[in-house]
Automatic annotation (TrEMBL):
The keyword Nucleotide-binding applies. It holds the Pfam family Response_reg. InterPro entries: AAA+_ATPase, AAA_lid_NorR, CheY-like_superfamily, P-loop_NTPase, Sig_transdc_resp-reg_receiver, Sigma_54_int, Sigma_54_int_dom_ATP-bd_2. GO terms for biological process: phosphorelay signal transduction system; regulation of DNA-templated transcription. GO terms for molecular function: ATP binding. This is Sigma-54 dependent transcriptional regulator/response regulator.
Length: 387
């Protein structure tokens, strides 16, 4: 049921609006307020799906109501009700965040269309927030060990800045997770997060993938194509396994970092870009520099902040929390009941040598849930998680 609040100091107009909306849809629950102050008291205590608000009112006018709603309930659409002399102000309220405005006396079709559109928008906003929260939860870092606490603290400090971050660590430790967290907690979180696996792209195609190309620049380039840097404009680009990037591509990335502009393959036209760069590698880049396989100047450009993600063997105290997290997630994915792990089973898992790190632990937990008993026992671990 859609909750609609009408704030209007003229009782006759309140009644007309309420009657029109009630007759249009029996699922509309209408609440009325005679002025802005009364309306704000109701808004503070309730979650309305839509507010219809007059502009000229005693005590607190519609513009003040709109500004207050934007602060405390920004997801709530506000439609302004304007008299003939209020049209200029109504247009100004659109710039302040009003969804729309309707004139007095209200045109029936315009009123109903505006209300339906505003309610649809509220539904989309709520759904987007729910999905964003779900995505953020998927990238939550699980663990309370000292090493993970240090990383979380660094992320809290670094995420709001535009500082470049180089994330190091072995395969399966969670470097991608750190990159996602940095983006989710940044001011760029509403902008794109573009991920590039540098090791998975052939060296001859990496430049085109990153910077795009123009038609005819090479065999198979049948049309102009934007690259990942353009796609990430305003947001974040994550260069995973950057240690596998070719030297020519490294030179172009360095230029993009220095000048905030790129050139598509086959073009000499500069394209301005505004991206935050996060990079990750499982290689020792200092050794790669000594072997002339990685540019030292690029390394120093990327490594403003260094985050080393520890191996699972270095954070065994987190294994109980990780097992619980994976067990819950797998149960949701498979639609079955969540299985508990016996204390002895957890202790045995903590003794294993996790060469595959978090990724390997997740696979083992899923295997145990599929093959083990109703409660995962120490014997289940010995049978199905043996190394």
């Amino acid at each position: 049921m859609a909750q609609i609040l009408i704030i209007e100091d003229e009782s006759a107009i309140r009644r007309v609006l309420g009657k029109i909306l009630s007759e249009e849809d029996k699922n509309y629950k209408i609440t009325e307020a005679e002025d802005g102050l009364a309306g704000m008291d109701l808004i503070k205590d309730n979650d309305y799906d839509l507010v219809l608000c007059d502009i000229k009112m005693p005590k607190m006018d519609g513009v003040e109501v709109l500004e207050a709603v934007q602060k405390i309930k920004p997801e709530t659409p506000v439609v302004m009700i304007s008299g003939h002399g209020d049209l200029d102000t109504a247009v100004q309220t659109m710039r302040l965040g009003a969804f729309d405005y309707i004139s007095k006396p209200p045109d029936l079709n315009r009123l109903l269309n505006t209300v339906r559109n505003a309610l649809d928008r509220k539904t989309l906003v709520v759904e987007n927030k729910r999905l964003k929260k779900k995505v953020s939860k998927n990238y939550e870092m699980i663990g309370e060990s000292e090493l993970i606490s240090i990383i979380k603290n660094i992320i809290e400090k670094v995420a709001p800045t535009d500082a470049r971050v180089l994330i190091t660590g072995g395969n399966g430790t969670g470097k991608e997770l750190v990159a996602h967290w940095l983006h989710e907690k940044s001011d760029r979180s509403k902008k794109p997060f573009i991920e590039v696996n540098c090791a998975a792209i052939p060296s001859e195609l990496i430049e085109s993938e990153l910077f795009g190309h123009v038609k005819g620049s090479f065999t198979g380039a049948n049309k102009d194509r934007a690259g990942k840097f353009e796609a990430a404009n305003g947001g974040t680009i994550f260069l995973d396994e950057i240690g596998d990037m070719s030297l020519p591509a490294q030179a172009k990335v360095l230029r993009a970092l220095q000048e905030n502009r790129i050139q598509r393959v086959g073009s000499d036209k500069d394209i301005q870009v505004n991206v935050r760069i996060l990079a990750a590698t499982n290689k020792d880049l200092k050794k790669e520099i000594e072997e002339k396989r990685f540019r030292e100047d690029l390394y120093h450009r990327l490594a403003v902040i260094l985050i080393n993600v520890p191996s699972l063997n270095d954070r065994r105290d987190d294994i109980p929390l990780l097992v619980e997290h994976f067990a819950q997630k797998i149960a949701q994915e498979q639609g079955g009941p969540r299985k508990e792990f016996h204390t002895n089973a957890i202790k045995l898992l903590q003794e294993y040598d996790w060469t595959g790190n978090i990724r390997e632990l997740r696979n083992v937990v899923e295997r145990l849930i599929i093959l083990g008993g109703e409660e995962i026992s120490e014997n289940d671990v010995k049978l199905f998680a043996s190394k």
